[in-house]
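**Entry details**
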Amino acid sequence: MFVKTFKKNYHLQLALLITVPLMLWIPAFINSPALVKTNLDMPIYEVIYNIFFKYRFLSTILAFLLVFIQGFILNSIFSSHQLSNKITFLPAFLYIILLSSDYNSMTISPFLILNTFTIGAIYFLFRCYDKKEGSDEVFNTTLFISLATLVYSPLALLMLWVWFTFFIYKTYKWRYWILSILGFITPFIFLGAYYYLTDQLIPKFTFIIDNFIHLPDFFITLKPIQIVFFIGFALLSIISIFTVLLYQNDSNINFRKKTSVLILYFFIALMPCLYSIEHEELIFILAPSLAYIYMSYLFYNRKLIYSNIIFALILLLIAAKVILTVG
């Protein structure tokens, strides 16, 4: 029933898209969590945190709205590039519920803010393939990755995603590589100029460098429901990626290239997740690719009953995690 709804029934999709996330966010609306603060936060998030840390309820409302906006933008990107049907909101729904799976993150957090920039990077990297001369798109892609890095330092590793994508696109133009570096360093140049003019260059430069020097803490304590959650979604991710790779050979080259870019994003984004594994909420940066990968798996599955069972299990697992981790 669930999967068929997201294939055909436009109005019921919208109803599910609104009611299910609202129900998941009820605990946060009743008792808003504190804003997320980590030891790897960068200047952009520092500014945002200092503005909103006193306003918990407002931060939860803004986070809820931002999750919805990101979900709809991501859905629009997939449909406009023929990666999903124009009448389905399943990618948006999956993205939204994935980012609604942790009570403590139902507020403004670096992981939520940086996803705004990574979604922008996906948009421009897709456009790069569609254009005969995609120099501007390459620059814009790495500019967005740089902004994400200025939210949370481990996101600098996503530069590897861009460079490996050049090989997927079979783009070997040297200026693309130069432009990718220029796009990444541009925000740092402006930030450095601002710090220099305000006589903060040395302490701020030291702070930023310290943020890039980090040793992962693998000795983390998780609740049983969190362990079940991560194992369940790891297994689903492996099965879904295998299914997408199996079926994409029957599609056109544009579809195959962009699907490969999203799968590559998933594997490269695992690197910052492991780099700062003590902040398990960082797994949210996988959500843009997982929303597509899970949607494809649910739609490709020939036995609709199995897709509906898996869809229901996803909802139950997320709901259980939210309920059992409140407080």
Notes: The first helix runs from residue 2 to 8. Residues 2-324 form one domain.
